[in-house]
Design goal:
- The complex is a heterotrimer of chains A (118), B (157) and C (265).
- Chain B is built from four helices and five strands; from the N terminus they run E-H-H-E-E-H-H-E-E.
- Chain B is of the alpha+beta class.
- The longest helix of chain B has 22 residues.
- Chain C has nine helices and ten strands.
- In chain C, the strands form two sheets. Chain C has a five-stranded mixed sheet. Chain C has a five-stranded antiparallel sheet with strand order 6-7-8-10-9, with helices on one face.
- In chain C, strand 9 and strand 10 form a beta hairpin.
- Chain C starts with a strand and ends with a strand.
- The chains are: A alpha/beta (118), B alpha+beta (157), C alpha/beta (265).
- Chains in contact: A-B, A-C, B-C.
- Chains B and C meet through strand 1 and helix 1 of B and helix 4, strand 6, helix 5 and strand 7 of C.
Chain lengths: 118, 157, 265
Amino acid sequence: MESQINLEFEDLKGSNNAKIVRFVGDLDATNVEFVLDKICNLMNEGYINIVADFQKLRYVNSTGLGVLLHFNKSAKEKNGSFKIANVNENVYEIIEIIGATSLLEIFDELDEAVESLK
Amino acid sequence: MAAHDSGYSIDLSFPGDLGYIPPVRKFVSEMLQANNFSPKFAYRSEIIVDEICNNAVAFGCKAIDATVALQFKVHSDRIELVVKDQGGSKEDRERLKELVGGKKVNQKGKEPKRTKLGLEIVKMLSESIDLEIDDNNLTSVRVTRKRDDMEVVENKE
Amino acid sequence: MVSATIENSRTEHSTALTIVHIQGELDSSCMEKIHALCDEILAKHAPFVIAEMGGVALFSSSALGGFMGSRKRLVESGGDLVLAGLSLEIKSKLNLLGANKIFRIYSDVRSAINAYDWEYKGKAETVNLSFPSELKFVPPVRQLVSRIAQQKGYSNRDSFRIETIVDEVCNNAVEHGMQGSDRNIDITVKIDRQKIEIQVVNISNPEKIRTLREMVKPDTNLAEAAATAGKRGRGLALIKMLSNKMNIDFSGNGTSVHITRFRGD
């Protein structure tokens, strides 16, 4: 029994090592491993720069946050990056509470996050 | 089970399985919104329920048929959440006491990071968090969250 | 170096389930041992195997091949092989090798046993809820039950019908019962692979209960009653149409409605 989360992938023009990943739904303990698999697979395929669009991500708990921090760390280890955009107010508050706003690269808009790859 | 003072109580028990937690937390959020609590308050309460119940399932449900009991009481000035489970090992109990009490946790050899993060979030979102473990190892975590007037949605009637 | 301990922990209920605790490093040198283990399990006629692997530090692709071969043999004997308790690191590596497409993987042995009991032993799971008798609480309650049904594998359509049943029964309980935030309605949901049972108990309002009693008399034509009694009559008719069994008990000062609905698609 899992909470519903979907990931939608989009190529980034002019880049062969970056992807946009749209998170749709809730990220919690019941589906975090599914997300972990998908993103780790992506990184192993060479997409070491991930831009996560959180516009349709309603909810994240501490387990979900743990995994986001893990992606951030993994990407950096591969000389890549994990950037987050369009975080809603509620999710941002939780990230802020644990002090992860300085650890994660968070952008207001998706365009800004993509631009920062250059 | 009804409250005897102003306010009311809702009691829910469910199997100790992580998969029940998403419907349960959404239920709490929706119940609060049905009672004119703001979406923001409801969201924060949802997080609290999620984190406490995750811990209850992960550490307090050892028996095959273990269940988790959640009670939330809505008063005029606050809500109280109590989550009960059958309790974990001695090590789990000690770790939980330390985490709730705010003392430094010895993380040697174990992976309590997730638990710690979750309880830290709960502490930041609530006025108080208390732990009670009885002689039969029944473990209760009680969280109180003040009703913030700014978070109350005006009654549209 | 690997060690494996077999535990037949379910002999009191079933001889079909075996738990194997595996520790150490699983590599190509273990193939013979894995094969022999499988022989031993098949000889005991307990081919549903939960491999508890919390103590496994290494799981090579050749060992995975050995496990796949064992699973095939167990499945041919009417059983299965599932994995439990893997560390995150090992699980990630296995998933990269596609193991999650073949094996069901559980966070711990308890979850694996519960899944086995659900799937093969008809085990039911129960949720109990007590909430104040007010209409505004009914939508969250019906959504809770609907979401539980969905997440236990019931189809969207089935879950919607279940939601409707809960809605109508709870609405009736509020409208025919004593209302107020100090009066609670108790709902019990018991769900298994094949059916869902919903019981709703409330404290009756004597002034309103007479109408309800009339409507549920055996010789009452619900369709006609629905036409004249208004929305609650229609609600009862709907519940009856969507359920396989419906019992209403007026004994004591409470009303208890018990619904059974078999899983549809």
